[in-house]
What we know:
The complex is a heterodimer of chains A (448) and B (125). Chain A is built from 15 helices and no strands. Chain A has helices at residues 5-19, 26-45, 50-61, 64-74, 93-121, 126-146, 151-170, 178-199, 207-245, 250-276, 284-308, 317-340, 349-379, 383-410, 416-444. In chain A, helix 9 packs across helix 15 (416-444) and helix 11 packs across helix 13. The model of chain A is unreliable at 89-93 (pLDDT under 50). Chain B has 125 residues and is α+β, with helices and mostly antiparallel strands. Chain B has 5 helices and 3 strands.
Amino acid sequence: xxxxxxxxxxxxxxxxxxxxxxxxxxxxxxxxxxxxxxxxxxxxxxxxxxxxxxxxxxxxxxxxxxxxxxxxxxxxxxxxxxxxxxxxxxxxxxxxxxxxxxxxxxxxxxxxxxxxxxxxxxxxxxxxxxxxxxxxxxxxxxxxxxxxxxxxxxxxxxxxxxxxxxxxxxxxxxxxxxxxxxxxxxxxxxxxxxxxxxxxxxxxxxxxxxxxxxxxxxxxxxxxxxxxxxxxxxxxxxxxxxxxxxxxxxxxxxxxxxxxxxxxxxxxxxxxxxxxxxxxxxxxxxxxxxxxxxxxxxxxxxxxxxxxxxxxxxxxxxxxxxxxxxxxxxxxxxxxxxxxxxxxxxxxxxxxxxxxxxxxxxxxxxxxxxxxxxxxxxxxxxxxxxxxxxxxxxxxxxxxxxxxxxxxxxxxxxxxxxxxxxxxxxxxxxxxxxxxxxxxxxxxxxxx
Amino acid sequence: xxxxxxxxxxxxxxxxxxxxxxxxxxxxxxxxxxxxxxxxxxxxxxxxxxxxxxxxxxxxxxxxxxxxxxxxxxxxxxxxxxxxxxxxxxxxxxxxxxxxxxxxxxxxxxxxxxxxxxxxxxxxx
Lengths: 448, 125
């Protein structure tokens, strides 16, 4: 239609404004827009100019609050945004069903892989080393299909996974040595980075897309937990009933249901997160708001305990590993709260809380590093200690820079996007470190 | 002449169903038809038509179908269903009774007082 660019822009802006109403679904906006444009065309035909026609048409459409309230009365369910996994629009049905079929196929494949892995390893440590390899490539495969990866990216992904698989199984790891354990722990990180490349559809240079992957990871963790809880309730009830009847469910449960359900649920959770992206408010931001203050309290308590526990050199090795895990968790919390924040909003109370979290985490990290250095000077180097030290140094750099940028943001000197960029640019460093631990450490420490 | 909001609301359902009886229409065309039929005196907020149409759809009186307009826009067309026709017949009967009753009252009673004298009755209304 002959609407000029200015009018088009006005209609677009109006559309954006209406779309923000929860009660008015996208299809209703289409319908209202068709109405608005029909009205404008008629008004133009009567000799009004563009601005006048637009204003009159908007006015006749009525007060948006009242209209939206009327929509809400008719569709109160919409205030609870509904997740439509398989839309029943007849024109869109085929791709949605096809996607569901692909998801289920991928989930079953991952289950089959885990099942085969179980029967080959016969309870050896080889399974722990390869577990990530048995599941995550399928998830990457789903995204490769979904994002229609180009051949070079796909080839690079396949080559990386294959290379990792060969390394993990060709290296002559010593029986229950620490390099094997380290490799088993770091291989999933590496694989997750590869899943990330598939998720980003090869556009891994884009900061915004990387942040999307961070969000995806957080939501996936939540969805997976929910699925696991639901599954656990279901299994527990079934087991209880079978036990009463006198049938032992253990062989079927351990041998078949769990090997298929646990990896399958991961793929399904990934699909759910993909499908709901724009539909449901993300839950991660809510959780970060709840847990940031709680984590600060927890870290302060830990600091107090560590400070009163006496000589740092005597700090237990298990404690150091636990503390490492806690710091990684704190980092995840930081990442999610940053990923969930509106980057244009002004600095607020929550940003100060976040800064407090980072500073307390830095203090804990400082104590840990001192303890580690003390242990290293006392007992000398080992693969475990170097791996822990390396991770702590990476965390230190990450946290120091985050604290610095947060202070700058609170003082209004740096934009929030600088803090976001720092997170997304730094993340690949962890992948590289995992690569070093998996590939170089076994060689450097003689597979011990 | 401006028709009171509540009266418009009460008349909306039979009016829309009656208009759809002549054939499928989309929202804007329904409103234009309402304007033509009432000589422009029956105006309602355009945006309110759509929640009403959706309610009629939920009740099963109309069905909707997305089509493409002559200029290539997505456009939702509404058509009356059998249940809608039944509903319309019922409403028609109700309105006929109502109109008859009103006509009889007005034939027997004197014409309403001019607005100037009506001010005294305001508190009573």
